[in-house]
Amino acid sequence: MTYKKRSVVAIFWRSGGWIALLLIAAGIGIGLFNVTSRQAGSLLASEGQEVLGEITNKARSRNGKSYSYRVSYYFPARNDPYSPGLQDVTASFYDGVEVGDEVPVRYLPSDPTISEVDVGRTATMGWRGLALTIGLLTAGIGACGFLLGRSRALIGLREHGEMREATVTSHAVDPKRKDSAKDQMRLVWTDAQGGTGRSRPYDNADKLPPVGDTITVFADPTGKFDAVWEADVGSR
To answer: Max alpha carbon distance in the chain (Å)?
Structure first.
C-alpha cells in the first residue's frame, strides 16, 4: 500500500506544532498589551501626583478557582474634581477598603485617565506581564525548535532510513482527550530485527491495520531516532 508523502510542515502541525505557535502568539499579544501597562507604571512612578480620592464601588468576580478584584473611585484632577478611575487590585487591598472610604490616589497630571488607587500595582503588573511574555515565547520557540527538528528527522528516516517489515502486535489506547469523543489508538509493532515502535495517535481505530498484519517501518540503524510507520510520514 502506498501512502501520501507528508511534508515537514504537515508533520510539525500534526505533532502539536499548532500549540507551540499558539504559545508564541499569546506571548506576543500579552507583550504588546503590557507595553502600555509598563509605560503607565513608569510614568506614574516618575511623574505621578498623589491626591485623596474616594472609593465608589467594589466588585469581585470568580475566574475558575481564583478571584479577581476591582474597585472604582474618583479623585480631584486639575480640571475635574470628580475624575473617575477603575483598577484591578489585590485581595488585601480590596478587603481593606469600603465604599465611601477616603484613599490615596496617584494619577498622571498630563493624562488623568492614567491613575491607580492600589499604588504601585500598575508597574508590578507590567513587569509580571513581561515575565509571562518571556516565559510563553521561550516555551513556544523551544517547542517549535524541538518539533521542527523531530519532523525533519522523520522525513530523513523516510528518505534515507532502513526499510523494515514489522508485525502489528497490538493497538494501544491513549488517554482520552477532552476534545475527543472516544479513545485514541496507537499502532504497536515489532520489526524483523526485534525493534519495537508505536505510531502516532489515531482517532479512528478502523484506520489501523489489524493485529498480525505486516507493515513497513523506517528505522535508524544507529538507533538515534525511533522507527516510524510508513503511514505516518508517507511512502518512500
So the answer is: 85
